[in-house]
Amino acid sequence: MSQRELKDLKAPVMEVFSSFQGEGLYAASPQVFLRLAGCPLRCAWCDTPGSWELAEGAQARVRTTTEKRSEPAWASPEDAQRWIDEVDPTGRMTVSVTGGEPLLWAEFLLALRPLLGRRRVHLETAGAHPESLRRVLQACDHVSADLKLPLDMGAPVAVGFDEEEASPVSHEDWRRSRLALLGLLRDRDACGKVVIAGGHPAAAYEELFDDVRERASELWLFLQPATPISGAPGPTREEVERLAAAAKGRGLRARVLGQLHRAWRLP
User: Fold this and answer.
1) Other C-beta atoms lying within 10 Å of the C-beta of residue 107
2) pLDDT tens digits, 60-92
3) Does residue 24 have a cis bond before it (omega within 30 degrees)?
4) Is 125:190 a contact under the CB 8 Å cutoff?
5) Top-level CATH class of 3-194?
6) N or C, fewer C-beta in 10 Å, the chain?
7) What is the 8-class DSSP label of residue 187?
8) Torsions phi, psi of 193, nearest 5?
9) Where do the structural domains in the chain lie, given as residue ranges?
């Protein structure tokens, strides 16, 4: 029996807390964040590398207005719903499911959605697993998806069980995933994020911008300067301006937006 079957519908929760969304279309809105662990991708500029692995004996951090405590990390949808309600007793705040890569836990997400009632559910995903996204799309009120530059990506790493959908490896794999993703996001409440690291030629982004124009031209596209971390350099102002002009020149709904929560020193 696989680890997934043994855990049934459980997923590894890293933390549940409230804060202000710092990225994308709903930046500055208050949300409850449900962060799941496990990610096979290795982005050079990843700002949450602690979410990659499913650590043995890990604990979930639950932060309410009155306390901080630890819970067993492997949680059922009912556990997650209870913790979310403790963090926001009003029942009104949007729940942002982030990671890691939440699409590793599609069955968990599908089981969690009806437990959340009137709350909106926003999904933050790396955008590398379009078939998994297709399965959960109707359970999401908004999708914020990364559009990865293949040269920023290391080789994927297995996270400890047989994944239902293989992660992209080659440039061609990444483009196929991107095109499928954009087709799913077209005409939906969604946005794309393009993290801009330093030192890349503007030409490296041309294919990505062209794909957005062809598959989902109305999609809000946020150009996000990389936060210098793990040795990955941030871009210069000139690099950002060139890419913004290139996106605008294609008629895309592009905006430059950094990670606001880091500027605000919020989680």
Assistant:
1) 16
2) 999 998 999 999 999 999 999 999 999 999 999
3) no
4) no
5) alpha beta
6) N
7) T
8) -120, 130
9) 3-194
